[in-house]
Structures are given as C-alpha cells and as structure tokens.
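input
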Amino acid sequence: MNGGDYLDRERGSRDWRLLPAALCGWAASLAAHAGFDYCMNHDGILGLLPIVIIGTVPFVAVSGLAFLRLSEPLRHWLSIWHASVTMCAVAAVACASCALVYDLLQWRDPASRAAAGGEVVAVMVIRVTSPAVSSDRRSNDCRLDARTLSITIDGIQQNSSARIRVYADQPECGKLRQGGTYEISGTISEAEYGAMPLWLTDAVMVERVRSPSMPMRVIDTMQQAFLTQTAQLSDQGKILVPGLTLGILGQDYVPVEGADAGIDSTYATQVEDAFRRSGIVHLMAVSGGHLAVVAALVRGVCSFFLAPRRVSALLVASAYVMLSACVFPSDSVSRALMMGLSGAACQFLGRRGQAMASLSWTTLAMLMVCPQMSQSFGFALSCAAVLGIVLFAGTLNAWMMPVMPRFIAEAMSMTISAQVFTLPIQVLIEPELPIFSVPANLVVAPFVGFSTLAGLASLTISWLIPWLGLQLARVASWGTSVMELTALHLGSGERATIPWAGGIKGAVLVCVVEAICVLSAIATRRILTAMIVQEPDLPGKRLIVNPVERLRMWMERTRKALRELQWEE
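output
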C-alpha cells in the first residue's frame, strides 16, 4: 500500500486522520485569542503575530522538498507524516486567522470601544438571538442574548455588530422575542462573566423595530403552548420536562406576561444542584441524543413505507433543522445539527457514516465561522463526549460483554467513554468529581429516550391540541420522575462529590489518573486473554471463573438436553 492509498482510504467511523488537524485548529484558535488579549493589554505588536502564523504553512510545505534525496521506504513514510503535518498547519493557520480577525473586528466595534472606557448610557438597535430566561443578576428579572445593529451615544449613531447580553425587567422582558429587532436604552459595559463580551443592563424604553419572522413566531407559539401545558404538571414535571425537551429548566422560563409559573424556588435549586452533583445534569441540555431519537423515529417511518434512501435522508435532515430551530439555542445544538446534517448527507450519497471525520470537519467549520466557540465550555463538552463515544465505546463494549448482559454493557460503555473525556473539562468548570455519575446515568438511561420523544411530541402538538399535549407531557414526566429520584438519592449529601484541584492543574491531574486507569485496564485485559489461550496439547480454551459465562453455558446445555430428551409413551 503506497502513501496515496493510505491517505485516500476510508475507515468508517474510526477514520481519525482529521482529528489531529481539528485539535491543532482548536489549540491555535485558543492561542490566537490569548495572544490578542495579551497584546491589547500589554501594548504588544499585534501586526507581527498573523505574519508569523501564516508563514508556518509555506515553511512546512517547502520542508518536504528535503524528502527527495531520501530512500524510497523512508520517503514513503515521511510523505505520510509530511501530509499530516501540513494539514495540521493549514488548519491551525485557518482557525487562528479567523480568531484574530474576529477579535480585531470586535475590538474595533463602536460598542466594544465605548464599553472599554467604563459604563456608558447608550441607545441601541439589537436583534434578539435567544429567548428570555431568568436573570443571573439580582438587580434584573431576565436576560437574553442579542447582536447589535447600531449604537447611539451622545446623539452620534454608529453601525455595530457586537454580541451583547441584555438584562431587563418586567414588562420589558415580555416584549423582547427571539428573532425580533428592537430599539432599547440602557447602560453598556464590559461583561463581568459569561460567554458574551458586553452587557446592556437596566434596559428600558423597548420599542419594536421589526417583528420576528413568520417561522420564528410559529416556533415561539409552540414553545409558549408547551410551557403552558408543563405548568400544570407536578413540581418535578414543571422543572424537568422543559429541560429535557427544550434545554431550559422550568424555573428559568420567563412567561410573556410575567405570570408566576408556580415553581418553588428552593425546591428548584435543590433539584438542579442534585442533578449537577449526581452527574446527570447534561440530560437537561439538548444535544445529539435528541437528534438521534428523532432520526430513529423518522427512519422507522420511512422504512415502514419503503421510502427510497434519498427521501429518507432528506426527511431526516429536515427533522434535524426543525428540531434545532424549536429548542433553545446553544453551542451543543449547533454541533449536533452540523454532525447530523453530515450523517444525512452520507446517507443521501450512499456512503458509510463517518462519525470521526464528521466531528473533525464540524469542529473546524464552526471554529472558522464562529471563532468564539473555541472558548465555549458547552461546545468543548459536547465535542469531547462524542469523541469519547466514537473512540472507546465499541472497545469497552467488547470488554464488558463477556461479564454482563448486553444492554448493560452498551449503556456502561457509552457512559464511561463520554465521562472519561468530559471529566477534565468539568473540573475546569467546577473543581469536584461526581462519584455516582456512572451508576446514575445507567439508572436513568432506559427512561431518557421515551421521555424525550414524549416531550418533543407534546411540543409539536400542544399549540394545536392542548389536551393531548398535556397528556404527552405527563408521559414525559413519568421518566423525569425517575431522574429526580435518582438525582436526589445519589446527588445529595457530602459524599456525592469529591473535592478536586481546580484550573489547569486539576484537569491535568484528572488526565493522569485516567491514563493510569486505562493502562491498568489494558494490562488486566492482556492477563485475562493469556488465561484463555488454547493449550498446546488440548483442544478448546480454559474456562475462567465467570458466573455469567457459566450461567450462559448451563442454559445452552439445558436447552440442548431438553431438545434431545426422549419421552417414553
């Protein structure tokens, strides 16, 4: 096999050739953001940084000319590595360049320059990009994300495109709808925390400039009708069913009219904290699992009606887009949508699924289109979970199958694989380790699918047939009640979590511990494999003292004996 065959060969979901390029692109994007901030804070020479980065690609490419004088076998292997290094360099330069351009545009934006000098009162025209949720500041009722279109300070109006988080009070909260354009007055400042670089606090004088589009109004109507029905459920249903379906907990929802949803804030805080400490809080965020449930349903219907492959792929892609539009926007939703569309494209073209390549391409594309996502913990957690499942879920499942039932092995392998890769990032967010994360996920796993499907069905039907939407929401609450009990039992008390070192040191320490555990598991696997090798002079394999294997063999022999049994008349 020559180098070209190696580079061009497809290897299905485990095709990891683009993974180094994606990792290099991510690292370069983070480095570019950090370098830009350093230069701005220390009056550095920013103009030299892009030149140094961009010059990396020609240098790496030209360095391959030295391979011409080497022997054929050595040149063959070096050509493979040279192509990989060049691809990594190109990805790094592309992502770093996009990050630098983004930071430079944001730095030169009139809104950012005004906020850099301290708090200033301004009149802004904004386009709302997310629904209003409960505020994380005591002085305001709600918050929402938006993109500025213009800013007016001291009577001088300037165009702007900065991302901003708006904090407002009632009744202004009920006036701001996702997809609409509004003129609003408030105090603009640099963000103290959060993903948005700017804040607009104490927003008043909200005037509508342009109403949301027709699709956005339909989506808003669907969400409002669904949340109206979930408000009639039990306390846990009011909180968890919207979280499982839309990605927003019930206590964070802000009604249009400012009415009270009837949720006990103390109980809501207790449930949310229990979910976090038990390691199942990720279920309250929309991710690829929601898209997988919808895709399975659509493919099942298409298979029943014998729909062509391309028709099925188009319907699955349409379902992905509609679901992503109906839920609350987040970085994990964007990642899941891009990967889902990639999988639908593979189905349309009649090619094998390329999970690893799709994840790598999605990561690179999103880092170039939205460079700020390289600093998003939500996006990092979503990508890390998928990476862990793709890389190790199959191997862990094969290891566990001989010692436990198949459905338990599959659930454990996916849970452990995702947890291993997301745990270092979780430590960066909060320096503690959830002890019962794996058993908690195993307990709730059988209920997540049907609860999610029931919740999505309620979302779809509540605005048309309210009473049916209420019944479907109740069905979803049956599954969330199991999640609540699991979280309260496993996530309560001082022993639910282990304090851990925070920051980069804590993440590195987690990686070291995980590496030791992986090496120990590999060594144990090799020892067990050596125990069951064939004897040189005897047929068959040694029998390991394994209760599951012994039970399986006993059942097989019992069935065989019963079949061969001769009954006397």
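quick obs: Residues 3-107 form one domain.
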